[in-house]
Amino acid sequence: MDYNSVGGDMEGGVEDCIWGKIEWQEYVEKLITANSVDETALLEKIEVVKSNVGRQIRKAVISSLNHPYDSITRLQIEQHHPRLVEQASALHGLDLVQATISREMSHLFETSEELSSRFASAYEKLNGETCSLEQLYALKKILYAAYRCEQLIRRLSTVNELVKQSEMICELKSIISEFSQLKEVLWLREAVSVTAPKLASEARQRTAKQMRTSLESQNAPLVASCVRALRNLSCYEAEVKALLDEYCKDLDAQFLQLITSPDLAGKTLPHISSQVQNYVEQLFLLGDETVSSFCASFAQIIANRVPANVQYSCRILQLFTPVFSQLPSSSSKRVFEAFRPLKTAFLSQSLNRMFVAVNAAFEDSSMRNAVVEKISSVLRKELCSVGWDADLKCSVEENISKAMELISQKIEELLKLDEESLSIGERVSNTQASNYGLLNVAYALSTAWQKYDSSLMSVAQQGRDAVMALGKASISKILLSMHSEELGAPSPYAKELCEYLNSFRMHISLFMQLAKCDGVLAAFIDYVIDLFLIHASLFRPTSFVHLGKIADDLRLVCRALSSFDTPSALLSSVPEFADALCKKCEVLGSDTSLPSWAVIQLLISHSDGSLFSPHEAIGNSLQQYTEWFSNLPSAERIKFLSSVIESYTSSVVSQNCSEYVSTYPLIVDVLKRAAEQ
Fold it and tell me: One GO biological process from the UniProt record (predicted)?
């Protein structure tokens, strides 16, 4: 059994040893070499074994006393005798074990006490020596620190390089802070208490001054050295704050002076702008954080010292926006937030100036020719004043659009487009002159500021279209008289039409550019020619004599239209139209100079009354028909005339007539050719 494994095994082994189950010598050796022995438990175990043995002996004795010595009793005693002898031997062995254990334990105790005493003595000796060494080491450090302080103070008077000097001062302050006992050293007390702080203060002042000088000259390497030196001296933030305070105080004073003397803004603001630009360039050498701090302070100055409605707000924005636009948005954000009220006020003032110019331009009706230049000059000035800022330019462009809307409203209010005011006569009335002048203004401004116009051209077109519509209506009435008046050389209607066209040209000439815009005047000329052909082809009863006079009338009208000096699609073909009107029906049927619809209507007019004229076929008056027919495209005109001929054909068949009108085959041929085209 291994009694070294667990201390509890020694307790169990003592009982086996007592009873003789193991050798005593073997047990004692194992007891001495055991790693750990619970003495109390071992002794308690011996007592328990001893108690058990005694109890068994008493039990055996009592058992023998309570029974008579008969043969049975003696037999029992004899039976118990070996056991009693064994237990007595065990008690004797137990006493021996207890004595041995007590002796060994006493020896161990004495040895332990001796070792404890020797250890305590050695510990006290070592502790004393250690304390002495610690004191000596501390003294050595203090002496070294004192020597280093003296050395640094002596070297500081010879070193001029800022960073090196700051590092030495930083080291000196660190030593003094760590070893407060240096102040108690007599020969070093003055150096520590007076000289060192003085040197640190002088170095800080010298470095701060050098940094300012370097910033002014924008010497980046020297600025970096000064920054490093000030950081070593633990005063960089304080010096930078003092520098920013100085810059901002100066700027604040200058802006404050502008409030009391706004007339000086023209001279002062460029100087301030240049100064701010210089400050930003200097502070940029100190890092983004410093620039951000300056921007925040400058934004506060703008908010405090520059009223939103100040007259020179645009000048401030123009001068200072480029300065801060070159900075990162994170730095300049607050400055542009401070500029926002100025921008809003400037845009409001700009819009007001535009509106004032517009209102003033329309107050004097006699100066309409100068309206365009006056308004355009103001708009150009406002737009050019913000060319340096894309966002502000967009906002001013929105203001220009608003000004154009106001101009549209003004012109729309001043225009008089009733029939009486628009009526074309030999003279131009004051109302008409005013109307035409307004139309010219609207057209000129819309053309000059086309990018910003959304409604002005519509107003101009509305006025022009009203004049054109009245002209067309008047021409339609004049041409209608062709059918009721006697033809002549020239015919009365043609003479009246030419006179009206001359008057119309005189009126149109007052807004000729607008009239020619989008081909409106050319379309008007074509309308006159087209309407003339419609009426001429409907003239009935007709003859070649009548048609010859009508052809001469057409040539006369063509000369009147040529005076408009505007080419059109039909004007150059008028001579051919006039010649074609006089051709015989057989020739006319194959003629291509006239439009197919005009040939068909002429052939209908040459026929007898059984073939109704187109307007009679649908039950319309001549005026209604011509106005309606003139608005149809050529294909629709042919389609309509084809339906008229089909209706005639059906009526002939239904009435069982023997023949068609003489021009019927020619009309059918023309319709076929037109359908093929």
Answer: intra-Golgi vesicle-mediated transport
| Tally of residues, the chain | 677
Residues 6+ apart with CB under 8 A from 103: none
Query: Residue 61 carries which DSSP code?
Result: H
Is residue 156 within 8 Å of 165, Cβ to Cβ? yes
What is the DSSP annotation of 358-380?
Answer: HHHHHH-GGGGGGHHHHHHHHHH
pTM of the model: 0.66
Apex 364 CA angle, 360 and 366, nearest 5: 145
Judge whether 396 and 382 are in contact, CB under 8 Å: yes
Side-chain-side CA neighbours of residue 15 (13 Å): 14
Among 230, 204, 207, 203, which residue's Cα sits nearest to residue 287? 230
The rounded distance, in Å, linking the Cα atoms of 182 and 324 is: 53
Express each pLDDT in 86-109 by its tens digit: 666 666 677 777 778 788 888 888
In sequence order, the 6+-apart residues with CB closer than 8 A to the CB of 444 are: 372
The H-or-E segment that residue 537 falls in is helix 520-538
Give the separation between CA 575 and CA 581, rounded to whole angstroms: 10
Distances (CA, A) of 490 to 486, 495, 537, 545, 578: 10, 6, 18, 13, 14
Greatest distance between any 2 Cα atoms in the chain: 197
